[in-house]
Amino acid sequence: HRKQTLVNSERFISDELKQYEERILGSRERLYSLEYQEFIKIREAIIPYLPQVMETAHAIAILDVLQGLAEVAYQNNYIRPEIDNSGKIRIRAGRHPVVEKALREARFVPNDLQLDRDKARFAIITGPNMGGKSTFMRQAALLVLMAQMGSFIPAEEAQIGLVDKIFTRVGASDDLAAGQSTFMVE
């Protein structure tokens, strides 16, 4: 029997091949149907335990984050920052963790930061295009955030007073991991 006519050829099929094809296609459909039925059964069996499943998933997620932070801190010689109520942010030789990893052959130049609630509440960052201003601001915010969530940070030393806000004005079209500033991208 002719099954299909193609541009440069024709396909033929015998009754026996047609039966095999129908059995294979039918088997696949039955398999999908059985899989779906089993999925429904398992889902129905789990529903009464959903609160415990969600609680366990939440605990596993927290452990996953903590383990990841610990591994990165160990591999990259991060330090434990001193967290206090001083109102000061003092970071010596801080490094941006993402940019530092993206620089495979080049070495990240560490930066110091000193802010004080009573003496220097903010900083105006100036410098040439592609001089690292955006990286520095993001680095400062990221290190403070990491420290306050309990993570070690990439620095030689750090004293970080608790903060409830971080303000910055940074160009959004840059790509720090690729070493492209807003100026370069535009």
UniProtKB/TrEMBL annotation:
Record has DNA-binding as a keyword: yes
Keyword set, alphabetical order: ATP-binding, DNA-binding, Nucleotide-binding
Stored Pfam families: MutS_V
GO annotation terms (biological process): mismatch repair
Example of a GO MF term: ATP binding
Highest taxon, organism lineage: Bacteria
GO cellular component, one term: cytosol
Domain DNA mismatch repair proteins mutS family: 120-186
Name listed for the protein in its UniProt record: DNA mismatch repair protein MutS
Species for this entry: Syntrophomonas wolfei
